[in-house]
Amino acid sequence: MKCFPSLLFASALAFSVQANETNNVEVLHWWTSGGEARSVDTLKEMMKREGHVWTDFAVAGRAGESAINTLRIRALSGNPPDAAQIKGPEIQEWGKLGFLATLDDVAKEQHWNELVPRRVSDFLKVDDHYVAVPFNIHRVNWLWANADVLKKAGVEPPKTLDEFFNAAEKIKAAGYIPLALGNEPWQEATLFELIALAILGTEDFHKAFIEQDSDALTSDKMRETLHVFRKMKQYTDINSPGRSWSDTTSLVIDGKAAMQMMGDWAKGEFLAADKKAGKDFLCIPAPGTANQFSFNIDSFVFFKNGASETSESQKMLARLILEPEFQREFNLSKGSIPVRVDIDMQDFDPCAQESMQAFLRAAATDNLVASLSHNMAIGRASQFALFDVISRFFNDDNVDIDETMRHIRAAVLADKL
Ligand code: GAL
């Protein structure tokens, strides 16, 4: 990993001589909101039933940014946890440095090759060895709406960006916050991503952010994306600075705000508050992105811990995550869809069923996109730089669009430096 090279590697090797052959597994994760905690509790319970001890190391905040920083410090001091929530290209970065234990045994025993879609399993391997276990598939491009507020404002759920702005005007006039947004860089970047998906379309989005094509990164469509992004600010409220994503979702749940554009972990909050999909709240594809699926896959990796390559508790944890019972229970409350292709979706609500259909449709039409704002498309260096540029632009009307496009291009290229 570019940001902490040989020193970390040396610490990891030092650590690997310490044996840890207990039935304890320390897990570092960031699932602390109401919906997230409920979902991960299922796994803690299952580990307990199997006779293993889950030692919780939860670090709240900023969609994992705080947890990952803590993980780096732990790893630097030669004391990584047994398991940690890491995803996307970062799995490669940790794996290439030699930190991660292989899960090939469990993968073989549970037939991961057949159970997990190829687009997902590509993220889980380093040098063709499994080093991560996936939980789910989150769709990021959703708009969540309070059904009652829309009704009171006399608007239909918006399908396009134009419809969104028309609706937002009416909602504002009716005295509600049109768009719930927490003023944290990652939440702003999530909104930016969803507008970019709609305006650039899948092909140009891919060209810009995955192929890092300079023309696509500074195109007229990118300019339009920034313009629309800035225009949305007037529909957010003044109390957004520093507000967490789940407190932001609560504004929609409580009927203070009409809509939030956020991944489907937001649904976990509605469910934890006992709200019903289709009745109390609506899930609509983010305006202009009905055919696309921006995916975000949660996964755990396991750190090498000395005596044996992978301890029995680590193996048990990996195994349980892909067990059908857990896949069902966890995803029912987390808001995502199961990562196993063979889970019956009958008990899932209409949002999850639509998500599964959208995933299959997008896969068949080449409209699956790795989420830009959720560590799936670019590495940490680029992501931090991009968050910074996007947030600065959103929060200061004096920041120039052309200059911002040049900075976006530099940020996307930062991974290569
Ligand atoms: C995402 C993560 C989700 C959800 C969200 C907010 O990055 O993949 O599972 O927890 O952060 O915490």
From TrEMBL:
Provide the leader sequence positions.
1-19
**Pfam families in UniProt:** SBP_bac_1
Subcellular localization is given as:
Periplasm
Superkingdom: Bacteria
Cellular component GO terms held in the UniProt record: periplasmic space
Annotated protein name in UniProt: Probable sugar-binding periplasmic protein
User: Which keywords appear in this protein's UniProt record, sorted alphabetically?
Assistant: Signal, Sugar transport, Transport
